[in-house]
Amino acid sequence: MTDNNRPVRLGIIGGSGLYQIDGLKDAEWVRVESPFGKPSDEILLGNLDGLDVAFLPRHVRGHIMPPSEINFRANIDVLKRVGVTDIVSLSAVGSLRDGLAPGDFVVIDQFIDRTFARAKSFFGAGLVAHVSMAHPVCGRIGTSLIQAATEVEDVRAVHGGTYLVMEGPQFSSLAESKLYRSWGCDVIGMTNMPEAKLAREAEICYATVAMITDYDCWHEDHDNVTVDAVIKVVNENAAHARALVRTLAASFAHDRSACDDGCDRALENAVMTAPEARDKALVAKLDAVAGRIL
Prior knowledge:
23% helix, alpha/beta, 294 residues
């Protein structure tokens, strides 16, 4: 490892159906405290084919946390505290396109955020910051995911797509589904915002694998979304997702230099509040997220 490199710890955020990671050595569930409240669950730390990994089940083991009640700030904060440098977020979604079928994976490159009931920033009154979300995911991780997917049996992965994040927990109305299709969205889900925004504020490289479970409700040749139908595909997708993570870990760099996309330097020139005017209590809460620049 050169002086310009730093060790990598890959964070995996597990979505619906994904509550464990296969093959972890020295695995240990650890509780990490956050000044932003209680995270979804303990973090599973371990080593996967030589790569340090931290796994967090987004909905809590047993799926007891609905999307709107997830403490996204605490989740990202605790991942940063255990040294996570890169995040792969796995999420169940509905398809808004004929060419994207249940069972397909989409490595997302854009988001539209339609959530409205969630805390979306670590910053606020007393310490204002604005990070760029023009390109909300890390291209390096996305490319690595697509390469890994080619080695996983029965997985079809598409590189690039727009993920519409709705508030939920109800599924879309037919009118909403048609509207989102007219906007050019490819998939729809409930969990990757503000998660992606917070990862950017925490200067963690972030990418999403959207795992398609259904056609939402727009497709005339398919029944409306039901939980039973979704769960069946979720379980199949979860097995493929675990295989994808294992394959990714086998080839993922154990150390790296600065991210070419600038994800790990997102706060440079982002903080607007003058040092003498910053709220000291908020600065203290941000010791992990923004300590590098504060």
